[in-house]
Known about the structure:
- By secondary structure, this protein is of the alpha/beta class.
- The protein has 2 domains: 7-88, Arc Repressor Mutant, subunit A (Orthogonal Bundle), CATH 1.10.10; 92-295, D-Maltodextrin-Binding Protein, domain 2.
- Helices cover 45% and strands 22% of the residues.
- Strands 3, 4, 5, 6, 9, 10 and 11 form a 7-stranded mixed sheet that branches. A two-stranded antiparallel ribbon has the order 1-2.
- Helix 5 (103-121) packs across helix 10.
Amino acid sequence: MSAPLVWDDVKLFLSAARLGGFGAAARALGTMQSTVSRRVAALERTLGVRLFDRTPTGIELTAAGRRVLANAEPAEVALRSLSDVAAVTTPKVSGVVRLALTETLASVFVIPHVLPALLERHPGLVVDLVVSDDVADLSRREADLALRFFLPPKGDLVARRVARLETAPLAHRRLAKKLLKVSASRWPWVAVGRPSPEEAWLGALKATPRVTTTSFHAQFEAVRHGLGVAVLPRLMTTAVDELVELPLKLETDAPVLDLFLVTPRGLRQAARVAAVFEALVESFDEHEGNHRRRG
C-alpha cells in the first residue's frame, strides 16, 4: 500500500458490499452516492486492487473484494468492541441511543408513554427511533436497542421479555356498540395481506375483510378511526382509550405475542443504553399492570 488505510473508506466499502450498491450505502449512511463511489475508489487505489465490478445493473464484488470483505468484517467487530468499552466506562447518561421498533410501538407506546419522562430525566440523552418493520442488525450497530416480537436467533445479545401480549378483536367504542348484535362473520374486518393474528379467525368465520392493507400500522390506524375490527393486543385498550374489546369465542384461540427488548451484550451496561432499557421495561410493566387491574 502506498498510502495509509482510512477506516472511513473501509466502512463505506462494507456498506456498499452488504447493500449491493453505492446509492443504497449512501442512503443508509446519510451521505451522497458520489461520496461513497469516490471513497471506495480511493480505497481501491490504496489497496492496489479493484474491489467492485461496475455493471449496467449495479456493482458486484470481485474476488479481491470478497477477500477484503472477509478480512474487514473482523476488524469492524474489534473496533466496535473498543467503542463499547468506552461507552460502558462513561457514567453520564448522554449521547445518542438508537432504538429500532415498529411504527405502532413507536406511536402508541414509546413516544407518548416512555420518551417524555425519560428525556426530562436525562436532558443530555438523544433518542433516535429507527422505525421499520425490517429487522435491524444489532451486531453491526444498526441500532443499540430493539423491540422485537421474536427472540434473536444469534449473536452476543441480551434479551428480556417486556410484555406478553394477549390478543382479541378490538374496535372503536362507537363501532363496537353497533356490532354487538351482529354476527362476527359480518363484522367489517381489517386485515393485512401477510401472516397475521386474525388470519385463522377470519378463516374460521368465513369472513371477508372490509379493508385490507400491507401495513400493520395502517391496520391499527383503520381500527382506531372506526373503520373496522382487527385482532390486536388487548394492551392497546389501556394505551388508546377509544379502543374496546369485542366478545368472540372460537375453537382457535387468539395468539399471544411475546415482545422482547434486545441489546448487544457489550452495550447493556452503558449508562445511556441502560437508561432507555430500564425506562422501556418499567413502562411496559406499568401498562400490563394497568390492563390486569382493568380486566
